[in-house]
Amino acid sequence: MKVAFVHTPMPRVIVPERRRYWQAFDTRYHAAHPNLRPMRKVMWELPHWMHWLGGVLRARGYLDQVAIDFYTDGCELSGIDEEATARMLREVPADIFLFSPMAPNLRYALQIAGLAKQLHSRCRTVFGGVAATPLAEQVAAEPAVDFVIAGRGEQALPALLDSLSGRLPLDEVGHLVRRLDDGRIVRTARTYPWLPVGAIPMPVVELFPAEAGECLRYIRLVRALGCPFECPFCTIQTIGRSADSFTIDRVLAELDAYRDHYGRHHHVYFGDETFTMHPKRTLEFCAALEARGDVIYDIQTRPDLLTDAALLDGLRRSGCAWIEIGIEALRGADHRVLKGGRGGAEFTDTLKRVRDAGLNACSFLINGLPTQTLDDMRRSIDDVCELIGRRLLFASYIFGMVPYPGSQYHAEPHRFGIELLHRDYHLYHEELPPVYRTAHAGPDAMHRVLQDGVMALGEAMTLSEDQWPDHMAGMPRDGYGTFWNLPHS
After folding, report:
1. CB environment 9-34: b (16+ within 10 A), e (fewer)
2. Distance between CA 82 and CA 462 in Å, rounded?
3. Gap between the Cα atoms of 202 and 212, Å rounded
4. Numbers of helices and strands, H then E, in the chain
5. Cα 353 from chain centroid (whole Å)
6. SS3 state of residue 453
7. What percent of the chain has pLDDT over 70?
8. Which helix (H) or strand (E) holds 270?
9. pLDDT, tens digit, 9 for 90 and up, residues 81-104
10. The model's pTM
């Protein structure tokens, strides 16, 4: 049985205001990562779900695996290039096509699945992941979809392939949603318990050719899976709330395997939702990285989990170059609720400690939270620009809030004062006008604030002469896309 993992493209959305923003942001990111190289094509990061489930299937004996990359070429909002897509699909006569799209590219995954079924009439298509899980019945009703795995797939996917191989009744496959011949959508009664991370096999690292390393910004790894927090805009709860850590030896083995295959110059992005959740475990891991001395890495966490001086020192000594901090907003009624009560002076003190420890802090800023007035949005952006000017933040992302399927904002919008305007999910995009309105603002006004904020942050992040590091000497200091050949939004 041949299994094809499909890397679904994301739609290109051109936002002129992003030009200076991305140039400034990328310059700062390059400044913090001396070994960074331009990407030949923009894969950005490996689709970890493919490698992970590839390992699960290999352990069950399904060895014939291939990855099909549509992501690096992108697509238009109007849809995929069917002729080019068909050419690629003809070359892969797989039995099973696996898809794990997000909400904005679900539409394109369905289009690719439809083409796969036209070209390979006996193939089966299987959808899963953060969008297909909360929308399981809707996705299963699509003619191009044979099965949806709603929830974690490490046990359900190999069981489904066993069933399709005739070794297991289909009704005994858990987490499965499918369409019957009469059009009814059914969900199997069986569910699987939480799978400890120690039971998850090593990933199939070599799923992509080694040359794909030229298309990566970093190697993404996961040290701990799950997140106990319940941020209402987040979809991680479709995967699970228990934060469970891999062993240090396992993570380091993965690190070496990925870098040996895709390039040892790559730094690592640890994709744990909250890397510093458990300080003791984090310090043990930092000690292992420090002992190696050959890893530069990025993390993401919350401001209320960056208060320990010993932890900050351990991060710096072990090679941490970049900390992405979810602040979401610095103004509005719920910003303290979202981030453990750390706002105002407390947040500033946290950033001072991070800076003084020699670490580069990058904030995540979300525009358009439901409790924010337009003035709150503008002042949040101004506050972040000021923090960058004071060198308390090194950089900041900013995107529009999207009530993605799987989030509380999508499941219970009225509870949060959100009115969803439609459920056309390919327009659920962080760069497009919001798909909702609140009691405080409409989509057009929120989008104008976002565009103004993008320009303001681009100006704030432009490096001054004394901030230009030695390892970037000789590189052009102006122009768009200096360091990465990105089709910037």
Report:
1. bbbebeeebbbbbbbbbbbbbbbbbe
2. 40
3. 20
4. 14, 17
5. 27
6. helix
7. 93
8. strand 268-270
9. 999 999 999 999 999 999 999 999
10. 0.94
